[in-house]
Design brief:
Layout lengths: L4 E12 L2 E12 L3 E5 L6 H8 L7 E6 L2 E2 L13 E3 L12 H9 L9 H15 L14 H13 L5 E5 L7 H16 L3 E5 L3 H7 L2 E6 L2 E6 L1 H5 L2 H8 L8
Parallel strand pairs: 3-8, 3-9, 6-7, 7-8
Antiparallel strand pairs: 1-2, 1-4, 4-5, 9-10
Amino acid sequence: MSDSKIIEVQHITKRFKGLTAVKDVSFSVREGGITGMIGPNGAGKSTTFNMICGYYPPTEGKIFYKGQDITDKKAYEYTNMKIARTFQIMKPLKNLSVLENVVASSYFGHAAAKNEREAKERAMEILQFTGLYEKRHILSKDMGTPDQKRLEMARALATRPEMLFLDENMAGLNPAETEAAIQLIRKINESGVTIFLIEHIMQAVVSLCEEVIVLHHGEKIAEGTPAQVMNDPYVMEVYLGKKEGANA
C-alpha cells in the first residue's frame, strides 16, 4: 500500500443557516487503503462525506484529490476523476434488471463504454466479480436489501473508479450478510481501489479499516488505527455514554 495521500481534507466547515454541522475537520485518506469514518448519529459524517463527494460545497476549507484542489467540483464531475460513491438510501433504476442497471452505469466515467457490446461485457464482468451474475435478469426493485446494496457497489464499479466512497453499505444486514459485504469490500480494495467508508457496524470497521476517523458533534475527536480509536477514553465515553471506570 502506498504512503501517498489520495484525499486530503483541510479545515472543512459546513454551516446551514447558522447551524454548524461540521467544524474545522482535517484528515487524509491513504492511497490503496481502506479508511473508515465513525461517530454517533448526528455526528456530521454524512455532511462531511457529501462535501468530499461534491454534493455540498464547504463553507470553509479545502478538499484535494491527488494533489488537485477539487473543493468546488460538482458531483457529476467526479466519475471523470475516477471517483465513485454509493448511497445509504439505494437508488437503483427500479424497473430495469440488475444487468441493465450496471450496463447503464458503464456509459459514465473516465473509461465510459463506447458501445452497447462493450457496456454489456463490462457489466457481465462486474456482476461475476460482485456475485450478482446469477441474478442478472431480476428487476432491481424485486431484490432484497443485501442484493440492492451489492448492486449499488456494482453500479459504482462500472465507472471504473480508483477511489470508492461507501455510505453505510452494511446498515440493515444480518451477521452473515455483513460478513459477505466485508469480503466484497476487501476484494474491491485488493483489485486496486482505494476505499473510504462511513459505517456504524464496528465489526466491519475493525475488520476492514487501517485508519479510522471519529466525529462527534461535527468535530473530529480521534484518528488512528481501529485499536487506538476503540481504546480512546473519549471515544468510549461518546459511544457508551459513560466514562471509563465509572459506575454503570
